[in-house]
Amino acid sequence: MAGNEVSTDAKAVVRRNTELVQGGGDFALFEDLFADDFIDHTPQPGTTPDKDGVRKLYGALRRAFPDFSASIHWQTVEGEVVTTFKTYSGTHRGEFLGVAPTGRRVEFETVDAMRVREGKITEHWGVANLFSAMQQIGAVPPIESA
User: What is the structure's pLDDT at 1?
Assistant: First the structure.
C-alpha cells in the first residue's frame, strides 16, 4: 500500500472513532477499532491506561453528556500517528468528574495523537481542556482578569 493510502486509511480509522464511537456511542465499533493491547499514555482520572480504561472513559462521557459530539477541525498524519484537533460538546445531564448534572451546554477542545497499525488504534496521547469544561459547569470559578 502506498504511503498516501496508509495516511488516508489511518485518518479514517481515527475519524470513525471520533464521530461514530465517541459521538454516536457505537461501542461495537469501538471493539473493532481498538487493538486489544492498546496503550493510553495519557489516561484520564479514574481510568486505566488500556482498552478497558478508554471504554470506561467513553462510557462516562456518554452518560454525563448524552448528546456528546465532536467536531473535527483538522487532522495530520506523521508515519503511523494521526493527530486530531477537535471540539467536544454536549449537555451536562449526568455526573462528570464528581459534579452533579447542571443541564449546562459545554464545549471544550482536545488534541489527540493516535497510532494506527493494521487498521487498529494501538496507542494514544492527548490533551483535553477539562479546566474549561469544569468552568462551564460551574465547578471551577472563572479566572478574573486584572
Answer: 46
The H-or-E segment that residue 81 falls in is strand 81-91
Mean pLDDT by 10 residues, the chain (146 residues): 64 97 95 98 94 96 96 96 98 95 97 97 96 94 75
All three cell numbers of 104, joined, read 449546562
Residue 99 DSSP one-character state: B
Q: Find out whether 21 and 32 touch, Cβ atoms under 8 Å.
A: no
Query: Contact, 125 vs 116, CB < 8 A?
Result: no
- What are the angstrom distances between the C-alpha of 2 and each of 5, 8, 9, 58, 106? 5, 10, 11, 33, 40
CA–CA separation, 3 and 81 (whole Å): 13
Closest CA to 65 of 27, 31, 30, 104: 104
Distance in angstroms (rounded) separating the CA atoms of residues 116 and 79: 9
